[in-house]
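The material for today's practical consists of a large collection of protein records. An example says more than a description, so a record of this kind follows:
***
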Amino acid sequence: MSFSFEKTCFDIYKSIKAETFEKIVPVIDFTRKLKNKPQIPLKEKLAQIKYPTLKNDVIMLHGVSVGEILSLENLVKKIKEFYPDYSLVITAGTKTGLELAQKKYAEIADFITYFPLDIYGAVENFLNAIRPSVVLIAETELWPNFSDCCYKKEIPLYLINARISDKSYPSYKRIKNFISLVLNNYSGIFCQSELDKERFIELGAKKEKVLVMKNLKFEIEKKDCDIDLSGENNKIFIAGSTHKGEDEIVLKTYKKLKNKIPNLKLILAPRHLTRMDDVIKLCQKTKIKFGQRTKNDTFKDNDIIILDTLGELSKIYSITDVAFIGGSFNKTGGHNPLEAIIYSKPTLSGPCIKNFKDIYSILERQKAAFVVKNEKQFYKILEKLLTDDIFYQTVSNNSKRCFIDQQGAMKFVLNKLGEILD
């Protein structure tokens, strides 16, 4: 496949008009409705809305969906702290991503909106309205028209926290010549790992533009824990952020393990406190003594403590031995395993981890966490962690090393941003 053919394909792609897309939207919306997905917010996506007048120079950050928006959280706060005289614009690509951005950054960002569809007219309208001084795109969003328009307008455009998954890499390689045209519109590509760096270069990015920054999602800090549950000489298993259907699995597994490990205790932390009555009823059915954190109950008189408080989960991981991260035995998509990993705690999740699949990829590769397929495997690995001291210590050490290896991403981006804006 020749370079000229790829350039022709690029030109054809660039020629697609907003009017053409508008004609097919009803068909797309119909299929989305069948799958219980929201309709496309057409005016926002085509940049046909009234944008605010931003008086200062603009720093723009984009995260396509929930995982990417979450990864930007600490960086967004630091940018606002370091560059208070800049307007901050945050965009998302999905409805859930936008809702999360609005929830988290309403008090920080000057404007939050949808990222435009990659149609040249829409992109140009968007960039003319926002007029960013720099654009930082989280992970791997390779939009030909957006990148080309930024290049022509001399707007610095960067991929941060960039990665190419094992699954998508072969597909990118098949259209390598086309991808290389897109990549060369970027001012820089800052990757999570050496492997990602090699892959971007293999796909045609210029070597001098590709650097390793490590992973923003690991930029969290330990929290001091002032909680005493009298856990001396006990082994404590925590099930954090559990959802309906998961408490049953956890309690069944715990009851089975308790017969083998008499000093095993359980902290059960439901994701939503509105479910507390149901969780209490489930604990009553086990016939195992349980207490509640709101009543200041401890393990002195109980084997199970229900964490029915707000804001304590992230620090209570520090006093446990093994953690299960909920939202992963149902369709929620999992919650953040790093809240436990930061304390070097061996961590398990169920099979549904779509919200943090890149994090689990790193953790599993370094044997720092386990994604189990079913309840049987959940019990088997949990039992081994709680009974095999050498295995436990190995996984704990892996967790610690993995976390340390990924540190430094925030400082890297802030330093680079300083160079760009200066």
